[in-house]
Specification:
- With about 375 residues, the chain is an alpha+beta fold.
- The protein has three domains: about 60 residues, OB fold (Dihydrolipoamide Acetyltransferase, E2P); about 60 residues, Dihydrolipoamide Transferase; about 210 residues, Chloramphenicol acetyltransferase-like domain (Chloramphenicol Acetyltransferase, 2-Layer Sandwich).
- It contains ten helices and 17 strands.
- The chain has a six-stranded mixed sheet with strand order 8-17-16-15-11-14.
Length: about 375
C-alpha cells in the first residue's frame, strides 16, 4: 500500500485491474487504491504473473503492507502464512507460559452448557456473541433464550454496509469537526432575480456564481479564509474553494484553486471538469487537497435550509438551498421573486457572529449584483 500523503496511515483497495494468474507488465495499472478521498492507480512494479491477491477489494490496508504478489512465469509462489486476528505473543512470554495457557491466549474457548449449545444451533445463534451469566461466564440456556426473545422485537436487518473508503473518511472528518470546533450557523435570503438573468445570458450555473461571490467575499473578509492550528489562527493567502460533489462512492470535495484570480467563465469551465472527474473517480491528489473554504449545495434535492458541517481544518462552510419563487416586498409592493437561502456554519473559536454575518452580507451583495460577478 503506497503512502499518498504525509498523514496517511491506511488505504482502501477499490478494484483490481487483473485477476490471479494474469500476466502483468511493469508500469501498467494494476490496482486502484483510495485514501483521504484520493484515488490512485498503483502500477505493477515488475513484469510477470499476478500469483496472489492478498488484499481483496474493499479491504483497508495499512501503508507498506503487501497488496499482492507478482512472480516470474516459472517461479513458485512463496509460502504465505495468513495469520488470524489474535493477540500478539512475545517469545519470552511463550517460554515462561505453560502450553495450556499459550493455547488459551491464541484461541478463546467458549464455555456453554449442552442445553445452551443445542438451542443456539437450532436458532442459528453465534455463541461468541452471547454473554454468559453462569459461573465463570458460562453460557446457560437462559442466556440463549434472552437472545432469541430480543431478536423477536428487534427490527430485521436488510443488509450490512461496511463503513469503508470515502464514506469512512467522511465519517472520520465530520466526527473530528463536530468534536473539536464549536460551530454556529447563520442564514440569509438572497434575491436571485439578477443572477437568474445572468445565468441565462452567460450559461453558467448558480454554483459557479457562488464560487465567484465567495472568492470576492473572502478577499474582503480574510479571517473566514483561515484555520486554527496549535491555538494560532493562520490566515491563508490563497483562496482555494472546495465544492462538495455527491458521487456513487460518497461525498467528494474537488478544489478550485486561486478562485479569486479567475473569471466567472474560467470557474465554470474548471468546475465542470472537476465534477466530471469526481463522478469518474479520476481526480488527482492536487485537485482534492489545499481547500481553504467549502461550498455545499443541496438545492437540487428541494432543500431550503440546512446546517452544513465544517470541512476540517477550514473555518467555515456555506450551505446552499434551492432557488424558489416566493412573494417578496419590493418598494412597498408585493412581487414574486426567485430567492435562495444561504446557511453559513463557522468555527466560533476563530470567528464571532458579526464578522461571519458581514462575510455573508458580501456574498449576498455580489449574488444580487451581476456586474460584480463579471469583474
Amino acid at each position: 500500500m503506497p503512502r499518498l500523503s504525509l498523514t496517511m496511515k491506511e488505504g482502501t483497495v477499490v478494484q483490481w485491474f487483473k485477476k490471479e494468474g494474469d500476466m502483468v507488465k511493469k508500469g501498467e495499472p494494476l490496482v486502484e487504491v483510495l485514501s483521504e478521498k484520493v484515488t490512485y492507480e498503483v502500477e505493477a512494479p515488475a513484469t510477470g504473473v499476478l500469483r496472489k491477491i492478498l488484499a481483496e477489494e474493499g479491504m483497508d490496508v495499512p501503508v507498506g503492507e503487501t497488496l499482492g504478489i507478482i512472480t516470474a512465469p516459472d517461479e513458485m509462489l512463496p509460502e504465505i502464512e495468513v495469520v488470524a486476528a489474535a493477540p500478539a505473543i512475545k517469545t519470552e512470554e511463550v517460554m515462561a507460559m505453560p502450553e495450556r495457557k499459550v493455547l488459551e491466549r491464541v484461541k478463546k474457548r467458549i464455555i456453554a452448557s449442552p442445553a445452551a449449545k443445542r438451542l443456539a444451533k437450532e436458532h442459528g445463534i453465534d455463541l461468541t456473541q452471547v454473554r454468559g451469566t453462569g459461573p465463570e461466564g458460562r453460557i446457560v440456556e437462559e442466556d440463549v433464550r434472552s437472545i432469541i426473545e430480543e431478536a423477536k422485537v428487534m427490527p430485521r436487518v436488510r443488509e450490512v454496509i461496511p463503513l469503508t473508503g470515502i464514506r469512512k473518511t467522511a465519517a472520520e472528518r465530520v466526527s473530528i469537526s463536530a468534536q473539536t470546533a464549536p460551530q454556529s450557523t447563520i442564514t440569509m435570503e438572497v434575491d436571485m432575480s439578477n443572477a437568474a438573468k445572468l445565468r441565462e445570458r452567460v450559461q453558467v450555473s448558480y454554483t459557479d456564481m457562488l464560487v465567484k461571490a465567495v472568492a470576492k467575499a473572502l478577499e474582503e473578509n480574510p479571517i473566514m479564509n483561515s484555520t486554527l492550528e496549535n491555538w494560532k489562527i493562520k490566515v491563508f493567502a490563497d483562496i482555494n474553494i472546495g465544492v462538495a460533489v455527491a458521487t456513487e462512492r460518497g461525498l467528494i470535495v474537488p478544489v478550485v484553486r486561486n478562485a479569486d484570480r479567475k473569471s466567472l467563465e474560467e470557474i465554470a469551465s474548471i468546475l465542470k471538469e472537476l465534477v466530471e472527474k469526481a463522478k469518474q473517480s479520476k481526480l488527482a491528489k492536487e485537485e482534492l487537497t489545499g481547500g481553504t473554504f467549502t461550498i455545499t449545495n443541496l438545492g437540487m434535492y428541494g432543500v431550503d435550509v440546512f446546517t452544513p458541517i465544517i470541512n476540517p481544518p477550514e473555518t467555515a462552510i456555506l450551505g446552499v438551498g434551492r432557488v424558489v419563487e416566493k412573494p417578496t416586498v419590493v418598494d412597498k409592493q408585493i412581487v414574486v421573486r426567485p430567492t435562495m437561502q444561504l446557511s453559513l456554519s463557522f468555527d466560533h473559536r476563530v470567528v464571532d457572529g458579526a464578522p461571519a454575518a458581514k462575510f455573508l452580507q458580501k456574498v449576498k451583495q455580489v449574488m444580487e449584483s451581476p456586474n460584480a460577478l463579471l469583474t
